[in-house]
Amino acid sequence: MADLMRCWQLASAEQAYRLELVQRTVPTPAAGRVLVRVRAASLNYRDHINLNKLAGREVSGRIPLSDGAGEVVAVGPGVTRVKVGDRVAGCFFQSWTCGRFDMRHHQQDLGGTIDGMLTEYADLSADGVVAIPSHLSYQEAACLPCAALTAWYALMNRGGLKSAESVLVLGTGGVSVFALQFAVALGCPVFVISKSDSKLERCRSLGAVQTVNYKQFPDWDREIWKLSGQKGIDHILEVGGPGTLGKSLMCVAPGGHIALIGVLTGFGPPQSSLFSLVGRNANISGIYVGSRTDFEEMNKFLEVRQIRPVIDKTFRFEEAPAAYAWLASGSHFGKIVIDV
Ligand SMILES: NC(=O)c1ccc[n+]([C@@H]2O[C@H](COP(=O)([O-])OP(=O)(O)OC[C@H]3O[C@@H](n4cnc5c(N)ncnc54)[C@H](OP(=O)(O)O)[C@@H]3O)[C@@H](O)[C@H]2O)c1
Question: Ligand 1, residues 101, 175, 332: which to mutate, most atoms within 8 A of Cβ?
Answer without folding.
Answer: 175
